[in-house]
Design a protein that fits this description.
homodimer, about 450 residues, alpha/beta, Lyase, Ornithine Decarboxylase, Chain A, domain 1, TIM Barrel, 2 domains, nine-stranded mixed sheet, 12 helices, about 30% helix
Chain lengths: ~450, ~450
């Protein structure tokens, strides 16, 4: 394929039909329906492996896959096979990990408001690390561990006042957000002080997460400087070692051909060097690092296939015109366009076209004018009903945030590898849609 | 209750605990879990009846409940009992209506990209009106009706270049959106010309929908003027009567105490008078009107109950502070705050408090900093874990747009009436969450 946004094993046949790992997209839709999410399994595996290798090289003891990006037992197995752990944020995500056979000690649990049952289940399955997000949680985890008769390893989530996105970051003293304990006001230090007094808790270290869709290492520099200063303070004041430092995720991917995130090993080396330098400056032993990429592993490996239903050329008040191409999904299977103003690349997938392109907008079938999948695209002007479109880089935060708005069923997710197709999540049926309604049966 | 945003049958007992229709919110959460959507059934019924009566008085032959706002068989039955029809936009919504026992002739089907199976199912169940949204659809509906051996009544969705919201509207020649056929460029007239030639279609009239959360009749004036001019043109050029005119929905509700939508009969009378005047000016017989309120019927009758998990006082760089109150739901059960910047009213529900209020933000438990339920609220500073909060006016577009982000189960929806509780939609279980994953069982 012509650009960096398509799956690694995407190709076009002589008539221009898109294949993923040797499977024709038309055959996929014929068998599994449309819309359809398709994952390039080898790409997920390879990217997971690359992240693990590059970040281990940079000082990581473990790389976790951030399950919130997209989770099913198949994906949990792939990344576990490739040597990664799993970052979960609820009892539901934890349950998928457990059923996939991921051992508890390879799992880290996050969340600003874990329920008691989230915590109890985490302890029951032996989750390796629980990331403490509030003072209340210190007591809750300690009590639950104590009742279970175990010592639970924990980390403290620290807000360091850095927020990074793409090529930019902002740096403040405080953070106006729900996560973590503040470095600036002393709450993070106080949390560590309380944790080390509790016999059912084992303090491992600190966690910081600075943003999402990050393209370079700029923001990590200030974050590392601040968090290492806290580690120094913990060593000096509390006589306690920060043996583990988890710097979270947020590594960016290309949605558009011009997007240019740093290469995996380059970003890893930069961050590793930053932390090493800060630790050396502070006179601290380098802690064991951890990272939590989610989108970066699964996002680029996924596409969504849609079937076109109608094409409307709409005149605009400025004298121009726009082609509204309606597909059979929309904001229920991809809320990111409406929610974040996200931009996507889209292509005609079922055939080639030499027709001139025109300004187009790919829209869904929901009863809402904001139901837009791709706001601006140049697409051939001969697109008609029953053509298939492919939207690139939808592997993360599309299926995981999907709804049943307008009572549309959630599409299936299939993976392809070496010409073979596996159902990762089956498509919802009408009975699935109605199963919660006692009056519908 | 102190303001216009709470359900009609909400009250507080002597200790300040919130009841809906005589049922204590603490008992509801104890039985059905938290978060929990609660609907005031009598309010839904009464509001539906008021809409029907007021708009019939203003010239409506039928008022449809717009199912996309929130749909379950119970709600479909209530509004049908109260004399309303149902506006559906997919085969899934249609199926709920059918299973609720709503007869086909009380149903109208919308959608900018109805699938062939949507259309075929609509014809099979005898849907009274299909609203044609594109040229492609004329042929599709005509063919399906012809194959079924029936004559299908249809309307044409017209874009009139008016977009209304709250107290404001904008008016342009063209509309840069996916719905309908343009009045300005002649497509709407052309669609009627094609429809009346087809023996399997019965042209009933025109449909226009100008916006959402509309507080006054300003936008309807221009929309009515334009659509009546089209009706005149259809009469003059095509010798065809527009016997039905559906002006859509979009009637606004109060989310905050200062919100002041027009009273139902006032809005109805204003719109009725506008259309009557325009028809008189054009020398046309007044058509039978129809309207499609959704949010206005179910929105104000619903609340969401949440349990507080953590409370964090976060210092801000301006020297102030903000209380982050984390609840056990979030953007999965109410995406409107993140998606539209929607504002909500929130109150401590499980007890009274005489404590001073402070600037607060109610946030969810998702792994995302944008996971905000109520961005700005003044709440008592003694709120602690296990307190219940109630968010007002969540009856529309919350459950219907709910996701399983972070593998959170969708909350139950219960209705209350005269001290009795009915499950409208049961809460999802862990097995529900995992049922689509072939590797999870």
């Amino acid at each position: 394929m012509e650009s960096n946004v398509w799956p690694m094993h995407a190709s076009r046949d002589e008539r221009g039909a898109l294949s993923i790992a040797g499977v024709d997209c038309r055959d996929l839709v014929a068998e599994f329906g449309s819309p359809l999410y398709v994952l390039d399994e080898d790409q997920v595996r390879l990217t997971a492996r690359r992240y693990r290798e590059a970040y281990e090289e940079a000082g990581a003891g473990i790389v976790y896959y951030a399950a919130k990006a997209f989770l099913a037992t198949a994906v949990a197995r792939w990344v576990y096979d490739e040597g990664l752990g799993l970052d979960v944020a609820s009892a539901g995500e934890l349950e998928v990990a457990v059923r996939a056979g991921v051992p508890g000690d390879r799992i880290i649990m996050h969340g600003n408001n874990k329920s008691m049952s989230d915590i109890e289940r985490a302890i029951e399955v032996g989750v390796g690390r629980i990331v403490i997000d509030s003072f209340e949680e210190i007591v809750r985890v300690a009590d639950a561990a104590s009742r279970a008769g175990i010592v639970q390893s924990v980390m403290v989530r620290v807000t360091v006042g850095v927020e990074a996105h793409t090529h930019d970051f902002i740096s403040t003293a405080h953070e106006d957000q729900k996560f973590g304990l503040s470095l600036a006001n002393g709450n993070a230090l106080e949390a560590v002080r309380r944790i080390i007094k509790l016999p059912s808790l084992n303090f491992l270290g600190l966690h910081s997460h600075i943003g999402s869709q990050i393209f370079d290492a700029g923001g990590f520099e200030i974050a590392a400087e601040r968090i290492v200063s806290l580690a120094k303070r913990i060593w000096d004041d509390l006589d306690t070692e920060v043996s583990h430092l988890n710097l979270g995720g947020g590594m960016g991917i290309a949605y558009l051909p011009d997007d240019d995130p740093l290469e995996i090993p380059v970003m890893a080396a930069l961050i590793g060097d930053i932390v090493a330098k800060e630790c050396a400056n502070a006179g601290l032993v380098m802690p064991s690092l951890a990272f939590e990429p989610g989108r970066a592993i699964v996002g680029p490996a996924g596409i969504t296939l849609y079937e076109v239903g109608t094409v409307k050329l709409v005149e605009l008040d400025d004298g121009g015109s726009r082609s509204y191409i309606s597909v059979d999904g929309g904001m229920s299977d991809n809320i990111r366009t409406a929610l974040y103003g996200a931009e996507y690349s889209v292509a005609l997938a079922s055939r080639d076209s030499a027709a001139p392109v025109r300004m187009s907008r790919v829209v869904g079938k929901h009863c809402e004018s904001g139901d837009i999948v791709v706001r601006d695209a140049l697409l051939p002007d001969d697109i008609v009903a029953s053509d298939l479109l492919a939207v690139a880089a939808t592997g993360a935060y599309c299926r995981s945030m999907a709804s049943n708005y307008n009572h549309l069923p959630k599409p299936a997710v299939v993976s392809v590898r070496d010409g073979k197709v596996t159902v990762v999540l089956r498509r919802e049926s009408m009975e699935d849609l109605l199963r919660l309604d006692p009056g519908a049966s």
